[in-house]
Amino acid sequence: MYILGINAAFHDSAACILKDGDLLAAAEEERFTHIKHGKRPVPFSAYELPFHAVDYCLETAGIHLNEVDKIAYSFNPALFMETTGDEQISLPLQPSAHEKPLPEGTSVWDPLFLSYIVNAPRQLSDGYPHHLQKNFIDSEVPANKWIYVNHHTAHAASAFYPSPYEKAAVWVIDGRGEKATTRYYAGENNQLTLLKQVNMPHSLGMLYEQVTTHLGFLHSSDEYKVMALASYGKPVYADFFRSKIHVGDCGDYTIDKLDLEKNLGPKRKRHEPFTEKQFDIAHSLQLVLQETVLQLSQWLYEATGYKNLAMAGGVALNCVMNAALRDNGPFDNIWVQPASGDAGTALGAALQVYFDDEKNATRHFRMDHVYWGPGFSDDEIEAFLKWTKVPYRKMENVAAETAQLLAENKIIGWYQGKMEFGPRALGSRSILASPLHADMQQKLNEIKDREDFRPVAPVVLEEDAGDWFENASVSPFMLFVYHIKDGKGDQIPAVRHTDNTARIQTINEKQNKIYYDLLKEFKKITGVPVLINTSFNTRGEPIVCTPRDAIECFWTSPFDALVINSFLLTKS
Ligand SMILES: [Fe+2]
After folding, report:
1. Ramachandran assignment for 359, one of left (phi > 0), alpha (psi -120 to 50 degrees), beta (any other)
2. What's the average model confidence in pLDDT over 34-41?
3. Is this model's pTM higher than 0.90 or not?
């Protein structure tokens, strides 16, 4: 049975395909279209489907859209406005035409948004772009194939079913779904039981988004920059945020409506330099988010009695919060879905439809890596290199030769195997560099045209992680920060954040052999089993997908070399 999972309602448009409950392929639309997050999360873009990601999934499965058995879409319009689907909609030409005040958390464009989602099956069979005809032409999407899955159920399914746990508390925290902003579940075998739901307009995710906008960043995109800023500040405004968030006894919370300009002063304009005050706002928000989540986690722990926690939702990408939960929360183990943003709901929706259909199926798919996107063979890449007349040479020993270049402080584009699913580059589409000199962070930020305050993160051999980072064992998805051990920070100054932490990726041989071998070789030369790993892109661009993307990015940016599968490209 083939199940196609689609996320398209808000942003992080993505698709995946399951065959009998096993994941065959998953990818985000942004990597094919070069539009970050696929699209902006506005009602006017809700009709856009991730056709390129769907096409990649169909191609990998070797099937036409007609051969898909079920299509799981990670948003349920019936829950959004409690519609029967037969209503007419009316729309104002502009918001000001709508004079009546609307309930908080609703928009005058909600009917338009809903209409796009209700018509998504027709859009999938008829709206594909011209160049993707092969896998779509003459396709039909009958109503019985198309299943709308509750957005938070899709997040929860993405967190629990691929996790290593038979039983776990499951927690979804994001901006919003149809109405929910936070949901708690108990997961056991192939079942998720809903325990509690917090609804709009009370949303920790949207609070973080609101502050992101106030600090001059792009909301629903740049929240990780606020998290990075937070480490430079002091908790000056913590009491302000504390006074606005009210945590109940049963996992519930409310957040007062905030007027940040009135309470915290004018919004920062995009290109203005940062002030101490903005660092303090970010710090206070991050601190109070952590405090709130710790309080709520206690209820979830007691309600389920489980020692394991599985998490998803955009807020679960906050690796500083995740570390606070790991260090100070009640759970023994935490697994976070690596595609915790909305992209992961494509996977969760598909898995939920599978277990709804196959009630006796056991969970056999465990997500121990993220390499589910397009990959290219040496033959394909060499044919492309020859065709472009780009100078290259085939390497004898990719790991050893690349490690030597890295030890000479060269900055390397590293393109190997299948592309990552989820927002992090984890060794397939990465830029790698030596962490041994402090100035490498600045160099990388310049090369990638990123803000000065942005840290770069390390990858470390899994077996050595505990020697370099406090209590580190397995952390393959860069979703937790760790303190650097005493005496080690000076050896890897480029990845040491201002608070002596680092957002690490651990790697073992099974997950990604060539990447693991590279770290081994680098350790052989330098004695350090750590490299800088940052995403293979430049500012505002999604991570590269194809060999063409990689070569274009390499030749238009000041990297020193590109290692693409077995081939080395250098600049003289
Ligand atoms: Fe979401």
Report:
1. alpha
2. 89
3. yes
